[in-house]
Fold these 3 entries.
Entry 1:
Amino acid sequence: GQQLNQSPQSMFIQEGEDVSMNCTSSSIFNTWLWYKQDPGEGPVLLIALYKAGELTSNGRLTAQFGITRKDSFLNISASIPSDVGIYFCAGLYNDMRFGAGTRLTVKP
Amino acid sequence: DTGVSQNPRHKITKRGQNVTFRCDPISEHNRLYWYRQTLGQGPEFLTYFQNEAQLEKSRLLSDRFSAERPKGSFSTLEIQRTEQGDSAMYLCASSLGGGHNQPQHFGDGTRLSIL
């Protein structure tokens, strides 16, 4: 089945730094999604990407749908303490598959 | 609150008992999904409904698991004869119809602990 490889697994950064994480797959997807999950809560949708090459921003977040349709990245600029959490990529084709997540820690 | 609602938030039960969870999707969403999430992993797809019809089931969904969406609105997920390996967060999500490209919106899940 389709496997999503998300990296890095974890990041420890200083407040104000930029963050980059990515997801790759051996299969193509029609839609890429990025979610953030806080402890004890469900994933919250951050950005949805629908076309290969698409670059979309949501405040300090920017994500891109790779040209090959097999990858996506998420950038967070000027990180703040509330950015702490686990970020998941998800690819949609006939169903939705998730990466294993990137755990982000921001030191004030 | 017009988001996806799940109840209960937490369930602790003894091995061998049956449990049932409920999900109320966003009202205009006709697709409803169930996922299971274990610690350190992303959610894993279990099953989904288009209105009241259950259209796909993962091989993760053993015969002890059953899901229903009788009127195309809320859904229930029942686990019979629970086992310790069933301990996980069970997440529900909903989306608009018209294809699998519509983003799914998640509830806060039901955390199941099997003693």
Entry 2:
Amino acid sequence: KQEVTQIPAALSVPEGENLVLNCSFTDSAIYNLQWFRQDPGKGLTSLLLIQSSQREQTSGRLNASLDKSSGRSTLYIAASQPGDSATYLCAASNDYKLSFGAGTTVTVRA
Amino acid sequence: DAGVIQSPRHEVTEMGQEVTLRCKPISGHDYLFWYRQTMMRGLELLIYFNNNVPIDDSGMPEDRFSAKMPNASFSTLKIQPSEPRDSAVYFCASSLAGNYNEQFFGPGTRLTVL
């Protein structure tokens, strides 16, 4: 069974600082890895999807890397803003099924 | 384009009552997923469908839970009878196999069973 872990559970940074969010998974035979954002009381918004054959994916200030051999993915958010405050979840896909980490709750202080 | 649509957004019911949650996936998507989110257990996959056929229901917690997908644009998750421990946020998601199965989530239904 795929186990996904996210460290740290919470993070508080001043505005402008770069964010580094970590995700690890136990089964390296993944189809893809997806990063989501969840605002309080809201649904999940897909941020980035990294295919198993890719090493990284970028969208604006967001960059996600994937190292299947070590079972790790990292989400980088450059020049953080208060609007980036949310919970970030990573999910590993095996056979079309997503296994989620518990998330990292980010607070960006103005 | 409309995203995944779920109804109702909030449901409050009493223990023992039947609850039906509804989902309309993104048009053209061939996979549909039902998830449950709780503080204790996080996000868990309950069941998923491919082309309206249930593929894996191993995450369904008990026989009280059932899900159907009568056509490509509609799915239901039913709980009968409901219990207080079923209180959670239930999400529906859909994806397209040809798009690397990137999953798109609905806004969720917050269920409270008293």
Entry 3:
Amino acid sequence: EAGVTQSPTHLIKTRGQQVTLRCSPISGHTSVYWYQQALGLGLQFLLWYDEGEERNRGNFPPRFSGRQFPNYSSELNVNALELEDSALYLCASRLRDRNSPLHFGNGTRLTVT
Amino acid sequence: GEDVEQSLFLSVREGDSSVINCTYTDSSSTYLYWYKQEPGAGLQLLTYIFSNMDMKQDQRLTVLLNKKDKHLSLRIADTQTGDSAIYFCAGKAAGNKLTFGGGTRVLVKP
């Protein structure tokens, strides 16, 4: 069974640009979560999508947004990139059962110069 | 919301047992999780424990939960060099998100 897949694996952008990160959940998983892992700051919750709807978002500015498609895949968009957006962006998915564990992809490493 | 804290670093000799500790604040957390992150990779789910359990064993891994003290630990028996990684504990907070500790870096010395 394929795990959570994320693309691209690495990305270099310039300050002020926009970026789109993509995530495909494990087959049968309906919920997708996005986390930011910046150096020295641990994992910070960004967004939770379930059945195509945004269910919860973390303490991030509106320039962080996303969506979930009917096939449960998801995109994370970041506008007006800032240097401090440089981080590993991790996507995770889980089954419909809210108590099922999250399974993570290998992340997208974003570098903003 | 949930706060989760872990010690930063643990050094252990190959073959010894490792114990990684975690404290959390939200007593309503129904599940508590342990994840492993190797360099350049995402998080790998190791094990998890339901809040009405005190202990869970899975091969070399033993999870102990002390609900009174809100303390969670992960014991790795017969630690191997491949166990060198960052270990995160996580609890489920309100809003159905997982809140992670800062991670414990485990270094296994031969």
